Each structure stands twice: as C-alpha cells, then as structure tokens.
Amino acid sequence: MKKFVALILSCVLCCTYSPVCVNAVEMIEDTQVTVENSPELWERFLKYDLCILDYDSLTGEEKDLCKFIFETELNSEDTIICERARRILGGYDVGRRATLEDTEKYYDFADFNHMYAYCYNKQDYMKVYLDIVPDIKHLDWYNCYNEYWIDDKGYDKILSSGEKVSDYYDSLYKNMYSYIELDDNRNLLKESYISRPDVNFETISDDTFTYVIYPDNTLYVLKPNEHLKSYEIPEEVNGMKVIGIKIRAFESEGFYSVTFPESIEYIEPFAFVGCTFLEEVNIPKNLKYLGKESFMDCNSLKNIVIDCPKLMCISSGLYR
Fold first, then answer.
1. Contact yes or no for 250/224 (Cβ under 8 A)
2. Calpha distance 115→302 (Å, rounded)
3. Quick count: other Cβ atoms within 10 Å of Cβ 295?
4. 3-state secondary structure the chain
5. Could you tell me if 197 and 104 are in contact, meaning their C-beta atoms sit under 8 angstroms apart?
6. Among 139, 35, 20, 143, which Cα is nearest to 78's?
7. What does pTM read for this prediction?
8. Please, which contacts does 298-306 make with residues 24 or more away whose CB atoms are closer than 8 Å?
9. Long-range pairs, 9-13, Cβ under 8 A, ≥24
10. Whole-number Å distance between alpha carbons of 88 and 65
11. pLDDT tens for the chain, residues 1 to 320
C-alpha cells in the first residue's frame, strides 16, 4: 500500500507539495535541510508524503531513496519532484537513462505518464518523442520542464520542455535541448544548447497497415490501409516489434473488433476515437500507456478486462 500511495502522491504533488516545500525551507533559514538536523520534519515527510509507517522494514536502497527525495526536494530553490526516485521507491521499472545520442534521434523527450497537451496537437505529437522518466520535474517552470540526468548524480543533464504547459513559453525553447555540466560542488561548468533534429517519420506498409519506424527499430501503427470488419495487429513486421498505436490511427473506422499482440505497450490519445461499431478489444498485459480518451465515443464496447501490471494511465482512456 505504501508504494502505491507514494506513486500517486508523486503525480498530484504539484497541487499539494509546493506550500510544504516553501514552509519547510523557511523553518530552517540559511541551513541545508538534512535528515540529521530536521528530525521532526523528516518524520512528517515519511509519514504524510511518502506514506511510510515502518521505516525500519525498508531495505538500505529504499532508505537511501527516501533520504535523497527528502533532502533534494526541500533544499531546491525551485518547486520540484524527484520523479525517477519516487517511482523506483514505488517499485516501478523506470527504464534507462537519457543519453546525448538520444538528442540526435528524438525530437523531444517526454514522460508519457504525464502527457496532456500533446493530446490535442496532432502535428506536434506525430514527431518522434522518446518516452523516458525524468529525474526531476520542475513544477513552477514554464520551460525546460523536465530534467534528465545522464549520470546517477546529475552532474551532466539535459533539460527538455517535455509536457508542454504553455504554447507561448514552450515556443521559446521548442527547437532546442539545454545541456548542462556541473562540477563536484554542483557549480556550473558549461551550459549549451542542442538543436532538436528535424525528425521525419520513416514508414513501411503491408496490405493492412502503415507503420511508423522509431529510432530503436520498433513500430507504431499509423493507420489502416484497408477497411475491414476486424483487425488483427501483428506482433512483428520485417523483424521489428510492433509496440504502439499512434494518435487517431483508427479514428472513425467502422470495424467491430481489434486484436492486439502482447507486444503493444502504447495506445496513444484518441487512437480509436469515434469507432462507434467497435465491440471487442483485448487490452494487452504489457500495456504501459493508455492515452487520453483513446476509446472516446466507442459506444458499442463491452466486456473489457484491463489486467496490466505496467499500466500508468494519465486519464480515462476508456472514455465513452
């Protein structure tokens, strides 16, 4: 239970954590907040923020994560969340770290678990984004919203706008990443800007579907090439695994059923919007991301079972 609540808190802290962070730092003026010099604050943080009641039962790694989250968040000049550490503490697979090479392959980085604004902008969403968990989320920044550490200590990091919060502010940083290097005392050594690649989708087709090829040689279904009563999506095409369904891929198609392979991990926003005749769909167990209103206006859907241990929804994907 503690792990589940900890994860939920990491998603809603933008509303609840900010005043706690400010007040806590004001309580200990001109002093770095640590577990040792702030025992009462530390106990409250464990109990009411991380929802951990039996700290002694945690592993050494879990205790280190708790301490890291506490000291990093409360000592930051900004309102932040240690997103990667919180998810690890919650028992979730956070995947690999970002690399500089990723900035050459992907138009932008984004945490798909928090992607809201892209839902309504197909032009931006059709670009190649890397789904990767940020180390730090800056809750009160309008630009460079996510901070991705290249190393475990954050001496080298990439800032990216990630989930857009404002078209105006995002436009200032829309065509670049920010790369930062710090020394051992976290003093700035270098800050540079990396132009985002002008990534155009490469696609392949078979008789039934057109697919988008991603830089890691995985495929997303972009659209059907023929109108059928039933679709069966393959697990692999030309040696590449099919892992996702692109935004609005099947919009308003008049079919009755779709079968997903277990390789499907992503169903993007509005993927099946307006499929009013759709009655049967299996939700694959490996699904990680069910986009906003993926099945909106699919009024014929029935008997849907969702048993996906890796699923982290941003909103009601099965919205009717």
1. yes
2. 27
3. 25
4. CHHHHHHHHHHHHHHHHHHHHHHHHHHCCCCCCCCCCCHHHHHHHHHHHCCCCCHHHCCHHHHHHHHHHHHHHHHCCCCEECHHHHHHHCCCCCCCCCCCCHHHHCCEEECHHHCCHHHHCHHHHCCCEEECCCCEEECCCCCCCEEEECCCCCCEEEEECCCCCCHHHHHHCCCEEEEEEECCCCCEEEEEEEECCCCCCEEEECCCEEEEECCCCEEEEEEECCCCCEEECCCEECCEEEEEECCCCCCCCCCCEEECCCCCCEECCCCCCCCCCCCEECCCCCCCEECCCCCCCCCCCCCCCCCCCCCCCCCCCCCC
5. yes
6. 139
7. 0.73
8. 298/272, 298/273, 298/274, 300/256, 300/276
9. 9/49, 9/50, 9/51, 9/86, 10/81, 10/83, 10/86, 10/87, 10/90, 11/113, 11/114, 13/81, 13/139
10. 8
11. 333 334 433 443 333 333 334 344 444 445 789 999 999 999 999 999 999 999 999 999 999 999 999 999 999 988 999 999 999 999 888 889 999 999 988 888 888 766 544 444 556 666 788 888 999 998 887 655 789 999 998 999 998 876 554 454 455 556 788 899 999 888 999 999 888 887 667 899 999 999 999 989 999 999 999 999 999 999 999 999 999 999 889 999 999 999 999 999 999 888 999 999 999 999 999 998 888 788 989 999 887 778 888 887 655 545 44
Tell me, rounded to whole angstroms, the distance of Cα 181 from its chain centroid: 24
Residue 232 backbone dihedrals phi, psi, to 5 degrees: -125, 115
Give bridge partners of residue 211 from the DSSP assignment: 204, 221
Provide CB contacts within 8 A for 43, sequence distance 6+: none
Instruction: Please answer whether residues 133 and 83 qualify as being in contact, where contact means their C-beta atoms are separated by less than 8 angstroms.
Output: yes
Listed in sequence order, the residues at least 6 apart from 242 whose beta carbon sits closer than 8 Å to its beta carbon are: 211, 218, 219, 220, 221, 233, 234, 235, 236, 261, 263, 264
